[in-house]
Amino acid sequence: MESLKASGATTSSTVEETVEALRRGDPVVLPTDTVYGLAAMPYREDVVQRLYELKGRDASQAMAIVAVSIELLFECIPELRGRTGAIARALLPGPFTLVVPNPARRYRWLTGSSPGTLGVRVPDLTGPALSVLQAVGAVAATSANLPGGPDPARLEDVAGELRAGCGAALDGGELPGKPSTVIDLTPAGPRVIREGIVPAAEALERVEQALANVR
Questions:
Q1: What confidence tens digit (pLDDT) does each residue in 24-83 have?
Q2: Is the confidence at residue 4, as pLDDT, over 80?
Q3: How buried is residue 3: exposed, middle or buried, by Cβ count under 10 Å (0-12/13-18/19+)?
């Protein structure tokens, strides 16, 4: 949408406009179940690079792949099975980002300086945001804030320079405004890397419950 790019307007794009922007390789503003995110199609390095440049994110830092369903997530990462897969099925969909082993070095343009791991999400979505993900399957995503800035709970909280660089901006109303809780599920874990909307103790308790069901 050229008008959005030119003005940095906070008016919402439609689902169709957002899907079209993603498919042509543009970054978009997309609501999740936690905060507003910047998203792009995850399958091409050049497209994800645009997302890094827009965000001002260092290339050594990873981004997550966000899938519409746990089933699609397993298609994207066939190695996600066993203990790690069981925990993922127990926690997702939900407000978690899981750092999982990536032995096949998939999506190397999303892994930053740690190609052996990958961040994954399946948010608990409804409404227009769900419709977008149902159309495209998965996106690469990061929070729609400038580095070090506050996490946006509303579309109008997203910085104008970020909106101006996007091909579409979907309004999902007011969100919780706290990021997902990040859990390391590699052999070094489980541990909470970042406490977000779910407190660390609760997150680890849910992981232990999932592990108890597969032991």
A1: 999 999 999 999 999 999 999 999 999 999 999 999 999 999 999 999 999 999 999 889
A2: no
A3: exposed
What's at 56, amino acid-wise?
G
Amino acid at 6: A
Question: Is there a contact between 158 and 36 (Cβ–Cβ < 8 Å)?
Answer: yes
Contact 62, 114 (CB under 8 A): yes
pLDDT of residue 148: 87
Amino acid at 8: G
Nearest to 189 by CA among 63, 105, 60, 84: 84
Q: What angle (nearest 5°) sits at the alpha carbon of residue 141, between those of residues 139 and 145?
A: 150
Query: How many Cβ atoms are within 10 Å of 202's Cβ, its own excluded?
Result: 12
Encoded amino acid at 178, one letter: K
**Pairing status of strand 64-67 against strand 117-121:** parallel
Contact 145, 152 (CB under 8 A): yes
Residues 29, 159: contact at Cβ < 8 Å?
no
Q: Give the angle subtended at the CA of 45 by the CAs of 41 and 50, to the nearest 5°.
A: 70
**Are the beta carbons of 90 and 213 closer than 8 angstroms?**
yes
Q: How far is 32 from 11, CA to CA, in rounded Å?
A: 17
- Summarize the confidence of residues 130-158 as an average pLDDT: 96
Give the pTM: 0.92
